Fold this protein.
Amino acid sequence: MHAIVIGGGIGGLAAAVGLHRVGWTVTVLEKAPEFGDVGAGISLWPNALRCLDELGVDLGDRLAPQQEGGFRDPRGRRIARYDGAEFERRHGRPLGAIHRRDLIAALRNAVPAESLKTGTEVIEAGEDGLVRFTGGELRADLVVAADGIHSRVRHALFPDHPEPVYAGSTAFRGVAHHPGARLSTSFGRGIEIGVLPLTGGDVYWWISSVAEPGARPVDLEKTFGDWHEPIPALLAATPPEAVLHHDLYYLGTPLGTFTRGRIALLGDAAHAMPPFLGQGGCQAIEDAVVLAHTMSTEDNVKAALESYDRQRRPRSQKVVRESVRMGRLGPQLTNPVATGLRTALLKVLPAKATARAGAGITGWRPPRLPRPVPPRTP
């Protein structure tokens, strides 16, 4: 059985790993000239880490478990504490962080090199499994469309479906070297600034700010220079050209199905969400494991795709709704009374309560995939 995966990001590569693991031949078509340094950092919650275990992807010492930290106000005063040990005890896995480039590399290395084709833009994907791209065409038993929030495949399959909508905030992201930084999320009026330690003394930082879509970028050092450390130091240590800036969009109208013919939508192409729960990449990895499982357990591709849609659509669309809700109740609050109430509520939360937060999402466990058979000794 042969699968074509359109898109070589986290979701696409995870799908390729899963399908390869269950015995499929896989071809990954990526329009970029190489699989490389994509984005800044990413948080990996226990649900995603369990999926990576199932895929057989070992992140090793590239994963940075988050030990302690908490919520703070712009002056650095602690609002609520995060207890990493308690979190891991409750969830069985830590909250982890990793460079996106390292996650991409780990997934890429779990797929045969001959399966990866870069500099290849898909022109058309048919429901019958025929995929036309720059340089040729291929026919497959399964087509996985992991081509992102502005998915060309999704638009072709569902031309009347509404396009992604603006989430109300713009975002800045970067990575700086700052050994000793601790996990923190700091709230202002309409603003969230996150600090997420990576390995080797690097730190992934992000800022979300309520703004009109298409607003001009602000001078980050000037705008946030009076926030608590290490925020000013991180901004100063990040070259301006290395700062990623983009408005936040999500798929506001849920799809009625993630599949059509032999095509499965996966990741942002199926359920793009705002980042306020840190679950975008995690949900794509979940998709990949479930897709591989259904392809290895159902009698045919049609039944497998029906099972994939039945399992993934309700859960992932619920996470989209929760992400939108979390943004409105947290980082996107601008009313001073509402922000004061948010701070007061967070202050009375014990560390054990923060460790329990989100258990309904992070507690998800993936289906088991077949284990590789070790080669026989001659």
In short: The chain has one domain: 2-165+250-362.
